[in-house]
Protein 1
Amino acid sequence: MSKSPLTPLKGLRVSSHQIPSLGRIPNTSIQKKPLLIYHSAFNPGTSASAIESHLTNIGVVDPRWQYTMYATSHFHSNTHEVLAIASGKAKLCFGGEDNPQRVEPLVEQGDVIVVPAGVAHRLLEDIDGGFTMVGSYPKGKNWDMCYGKEGEDEKVKGIEHLGWFDRDPIYGHAGPALDV
């Protein structure tokens, strides 16, 4: 039996953030589901391919890409997003850089971020030049790109009707995403 790539759930540290809307960026104001950061969820040295394999085995989200984060604030109106940090360290911004209640965490290899639909996010700084994430979305969902601009209002209204996770995307039958 292979060793789990995860920190045991009982030892997991989680940060939870409600972020108010900013202009046309809804953040967590529609569904009231928080931005969640699972600190060091994956054990040190867990590769991107091992993260993808784990996510596929849990079966809640589909890993879709390995990349950094865009440097432009954007959000998704049609899906939630799960970002697993595969390598490096970065400072990110959630909520919009002009939002006084934005969240600017320093994240690193092993962290996982559950980004609810509507939450603006962007890269502020790639600390060591090797920041890579595994980006995943709930089964059957594709992502759109919204920027808080005029003409996106109808897309944003759809956030209200999106379902939340019925299983935790990282831990399965138990986990922080089920406790919100």
Protein 2
Amino acid sequence: MSSSEELSVELTAPNGRKYTQPTGLFINNEFVKSSSGEKITSINPSDETEITSVHAASAENVDAAVAAARKAFKTWREIVPTERGGLMLKLADLVDKHAETLATIETWDNGKPYTVSLTEDVAEVAGTLRYYGGYADKLHGQVIDTGPAKFAYTIREPLGVCAQIIPWNYPLAMAAWKLGPALACGNTVVLKAAEQTPLSILYFATLVREAGFPPGVVNLLNGAGKVAGQALAGHTGVDKIAFTGSTATGRQIMRGAAVNLKNITLETGGKSPLLVFDDADLEQAAKWAHVGIMSNQGQICTATSRVLVQEGCYDRFVDLFKAAIKETSVVGDPFQEATFQGPQVTKAQFEKVLGYVESGKSEGATLAVGGKAYKDVGGKGFFIEPTLFTGVTHSMKIYREEVFGPFVVVASFKTEEEAVEMANDTTYGLGSAVFTQDITKAHRVARNIEAGMVWVNSSNDSDFRIPFGGVKQSGIGRELGEAGLAAYTNAKAVHVNMGTRL
């Protein structure tokens, strides 16, 4: 193993914050080099410059991380649950203590506004860890009465070694979503960060060690999906895999996991509908519709990117929506306080979004707002003007496919039945939103929409205490809330014969 001193670099971020950036693979509480010598270079999406390079895990490194996690599992699962929870609470406190540095790295590496990184993402990391840290000693089995001849009970047991693969849109928050329930339930973890955003998870690793987690309990890797991700998915030493990312990659994860029938949780793509009925508060609907698609540069799996508006209020809503975009979507340097929208995370994502603009034009949709690169931030960076298409029909590519950018389509409907049919006309089923002041209609439509989540008179105001997940090709299982714990435990049934003799 290489010493930590050889595997770090002193950096100064654009906001002037100086810090020590680890560059190794965090295995068994030590930073180590890649056995292959491969590295990943992090690019600042705001100006396209290189930040630094970090080690990329090989299949051999994955083997070492899994072995460390397997060894640690034997003792970690036996630790008094209250003590496990205590370590998680201490880690949450350290996240709070280092919040400004974590937020700085997240913004520099990812491009999201610093105020969002600090007050939303990093705050959610600490909140999620505290939430599940509190659950560590509250996982209970049941006694099941079947009569006096048998004493039957269940035990909630950890699964073992859990592989977790997180996306680039919320690197630290997605790590917390997965680490929290896994650790609370007594599992050990090998987590791989997205290759586009490799930096913040390594700084977080230093806090894991400082909090006092035993070696091997939390292992944090960077690496290419086709190498490290594939190695984790197909590893016979891994008992469970949890993945957040595209539906296409989710299918590959499932194929790899089939080798030993791993327990699996997937949170994949979405093309979530937002329904606006004639009786809605249109000003609020327009503002929430803006939040639902333009937040985080539109890079949200649950983004309500298909806005369906009843004919009677269509024109009025579109005017209000355009005004909300103009007023709120300030594109600029993510370290500036006034900025609402930073750059897309990578050049590839930037080009993908612009490709969908051309698709929308060619298919006959009306480009109402934006639709081109935004060049007023020093002339560089992966910035795109917030984009709105109207006059969209259900057969158009921009209506059916996930764009994952500040890109929204608006279509119209006549009746409630048509609205629900349009909302469900998709292979996805992650999020959805309904705007109406008729409470009966709201509950009825919420019941009929095929989605894992429905927001009524809001959009994308998720909460770590509430289950999160999708149906259809948007995923398998649930994260967050008490439901998130079920993904990381098995219920063992114990039958005690109290007198039945043969």
Protein 3
Amino acid sequence: MATLPNIIRRVTGPKPRSFQVISNVPSLRRLRRDAMLKDESVGFVPTMGALHPGHLALIRQAVQENTHVYVSIYVNPTQFGVSEDFDSYPNTLNDDLEQLRSLTARFWNDDSVGQITAVFTPTTSHMYPGLKPSSEIDGQGSFVTITPLSSVLEGASRPVFFRGVATVCMKLFNIVQPDNVYFGQKDVQQTYVIRRMVDDFHLNTRVRVVPTVRDIDGLAKSSRNVYLGRRRRKVATVLVRALRAVRAAFLDAHTERDVLLGAAHKVFEDEMQRQEALPPHTRCMFEVDYLSLVDPLRFTELENVEPKHGAILSGAIKMLPIEKPQEDEDLGTGGRNLPVRLIDNLRLEQITSMLQRTRSSSSDTP
């Protein structure tokens, strides 16, 4: 299979104006076999639907590097715990397909890129043809478990999450057999789990990670943002503000864990105090799940950051339900006022060179 980006064998014949929507495994495999016989590469973007600009960025990257791009839309039940939001997860298939059609039209006349060729929309009976999938920690079924990576941070808060992610990705990779697969940097721990699975099981695919897409105020794009509503949406930026405070401390030459994470905790504490001072009908409360500072190679927690190696800073918060909704207040999609869990991260190694330049300038100053 092709492993190098930006080398695309053009589609044999005219470019398709649209994509096929395929819901069963044999049909997708026939399409993939046809591309393989023509030595045309396939990039794969797995999603759970509720597409947003972050997903579209993955697809844009994929069409730059592959002849064909397959997108899957499947809400995988095994990565949701028994008390999580599987039943309320957004189901926006028609809107998702319309977004993909609009994106496909932009690529049709551009011979320098590939094309979205297939959208795979399997049912759970297709993806789990044996036992009914279980979300219990000790549930029965055929699962892929990647430890210890899947047991910390997100895995500690959501014990079955990465088991479900690894299992469904293994199934999808076996079905699609992609040359390249695309994931977003926002779900950084997931990218490590997937890379470990690909390496450990000798899967013949290349994992590509695309930078996080953010709103203008810094909030990372996420399918769950639709649950926030206006009031919680404003306060939800506390997570990225906390992470950026750590980055500022790092740029100021601090490398100790306590100092770096302390900068984030101060942002959280200040925002919490502001909200607690407000009356229930205007405030918005949240909880901090975790803050993490890990080695970018081993994904182990660091006590001190080596500037030449950097670190991955990540965190998660839970936006709590509005205590006293106002009349006709926007409570998010469905108006159910559910708790919303948000994650985000920054790669401190991306600014290591800036830190080194800062130190160099300081040492040159009389």
